[in-house]
Structure formats: structure tokens, C-alpha cells
Amino acid sequence: MKSSVITFPGSNCDRDMDVALKKFGFKNKMVWHADAELPKSDLVVLPGGFSYGDYLRCGSMASKSKIMQSVINFANSGGMVMGICNGFQILVETGLVPGVLLRNKYLEFICKNVFVKINDKKNKYFKNVNNEVLELHIAHNEGNYFCTNDQLKEIEDNNQIAINYCDENGKIEEKFNPNGSIKNIAGIFNKEKNVLGMMPHPERMIDTSLSGEDGSLFFKNLINNLK
Amino acid sequence: MKISVIITLKKDVLDPQGKVIHQTLDGMGFNDVNEVRQGKYFEIDTKETDNGKAKAKVEEMCKKLLANLVIENYKIIDPK
After folding, report:
1. pLDDT for A210
2. pTM as predicted
């Protein structure tokens, strides 16, 4: 399986993602934002970081970079595109997934482990994951998911919520919501579910001695689903 | 020609920064403030000399980059 990780000026989780993808069997290529063409890929990843210093709105500048037109075309033709953290912010700015990510409710940069419940498994990202709940890491200042009421209705009608913040038993309540996101949303799909944006970093949970293994579950499963 | 744009958050969108500014003002003794909403201001100096054309271009900029219409409104201020 071939993957591509896009590096924007200010990306800082691109190498971690490269390590994670390779560990679980992807042949990964790093792609520079100013390139026009994507290499042949089964998966494209927009990594975390602070592209363009978060100027104007997080992800807004990166969403207009040269490579993004190819990424948008790839996604619109059914290609798998995953945006993590700043990558999620870039995805909402392109309009590939609905909504926006606002400043965290309590204005803090949040850096901690959280639990998320998988809401939908009828997609290539989470199909066959045995766990209902994953422990993943978040690190963000703007992860407060917001959308209009009409968008929320559409998202719910199409079952586009991917993961919600919860406790270790999968209970989704406001007190387990770290950043004020509507409905504890931590990640969403586009309508066709080939595009996934999420705030948590699975690439930070791939080593038993350093973190946890729930990211490993995610990547092992993902590559199997793509085969 | 210089054209200015003001971008504000829509009414129903939470503005945590505005809220904190409000609280701080309150703590400083400005007790009669009902609400504070923070926005953005841009000054765009364009080569275009036709007023109408320049405004139309800036409107396009607002829609495509300067504002995110899910959460923000934009207002173009007439050049003097």
C-alpha cells in the first residue's frame, strides 16, 4: 500500500506520521506543499502542526496551497484522505468535510490523552477495529468543532460522525468533552466516508514503551482494510 | 485604492476570546458592558482604480479566503 504525507511550512507531525505509516507496512512518500502532483497513493495524509503559523485561521492558508488542488481532486474521485489535527483544520477549510474548528472553549492549549468512541464502522478507517473505545493523544488550541444546525442534521442523518470524546467506558458526556466541540465530536467523515478529519493523533500511540498501542490498532486495521 | 474589510463572528458562534475580554473589562471596573465580540480588520491596497470593480474583487477575496462563511460575516467599507 502506498501513502503520501504532505508537508506544509509549519507541519511538525509529518515525520511521526511517516514513521507510523512505515511501521505498519505502508510505502510512504513525503510530498512538499508546493508540488503540483500527488504520487500514486492509496492514502493521503495531511499531518498535524502549525501550517503557515496558524495565520488568519488555522489551516486556511494551507488549504489554498498548490498540492491541495490535487488532494481535493483525489478525494473527489474517491481517494482516501485523512487529516489529523492541523490536517483536520485544513480539511474543513477546503470544504471536503463540513464545519469549522474554533478556539478551545476554555482558551487553553490542550495536550493530554483522551478516550474516543468509534461511532461508525461502516468505513475503511474503522471497519474491523475490535475496540469500541480508543485511547489517543490530543494537542491543540483550536479543536472546538462547530457547524450550523442544518449541517449538524445532515452529518447525523448521514452518520458522518467518526469519533466522539468519551470516558474509558465509552460514555459520551459533556464532562468528557475537552474543548467544547458540538456533540463531543472528535472526528468526522465526508458524506462518502473516504475523507476523515480528526483531532486526536493516532501516530503518537504506536509504541508500548513510549505511549500506548491504540494507534497501532488503528494503523494495522487501516492497511488491512485498504488491501 | 485602499479598501477595508471587517470580519465578525456570526451571532450564534461562541467567541471565547470576546468573553475573556469582557470578563477582564468587568474586573477593571467597566461594569456596564453587555457583551464583547472580537473580529478582524483588513486594509487592502489594490491597483484597481474602478471603485465597483475593486469592491467586487475584495468581495471575492472575502468569500474565498478572508472569511469562513460558516462562522463569519464580512463587511466591505467603501473607499473614501
Report:
1. 82
2. 0.93
Question: Which positions in chain A touch B66 (Cβ < 8 Å)?
Answer: 56
In the β-sheet with A27-32, what is the strand arrangement from edge to edge? A27-32, A2-7, A43-46, A80-84, A195-198, A185-189, A161-166, A110-118, A133-140
Q: DSSP secondary structure string, B29-73? A: T-TT-------EEEEEE-S---HHHHHHHHHHHIIIII--TTTEE
The whole-angstrom separation of Cα B56 and Cα B64 is 12
**What is the spatial distance between Cα A17 and Cα A218, in angstroms, rounded to a whole number?**
13
Residues 6+ apart with CB under 8 A from A74: A38, A41, A44, A81
**Nearest chain B Cα distance for residue A219, angstroms:** 32
The ranges assigned to domains in chain B are 2-77
Q: Which of B13, B16, B65 sits opposite A60 (nearest CB)?
A: B65
A125 contacts A137 by C-beta, under 8 angstroms:
no
Instruction: Tell me what ipTM this predicted complex has.
Output: 0.82
Q: Which fold has domain B2-77?
A: Mth169; Chain: A , (3.30.1280)
Domains of chain A, CATH where assigned: 2-226 (3.40.50.880)
CB A89 within 8 A of CB A102: no
Active-site residue, A85 included: yes
Query: CA A187 to CA A161: how far, in whole Å?
Result: 6
Instruction: Identify the closest residue of chain A to B11 by CA–CA distance.
Output: A148
Contact A93, A63 (CB under 8 A): yes
Residue B52 · residue B3 · CB < 8 Å: no
pLDDT tens for each residue of chain B, 80 residues long:
999 999 999 998 989 889 989 999 999 999 999 999 999 999 999 999 999 999 999 999 999 999 999 999 999 998 76
Residue A150 distance to chain B (closest CA, Å): 11
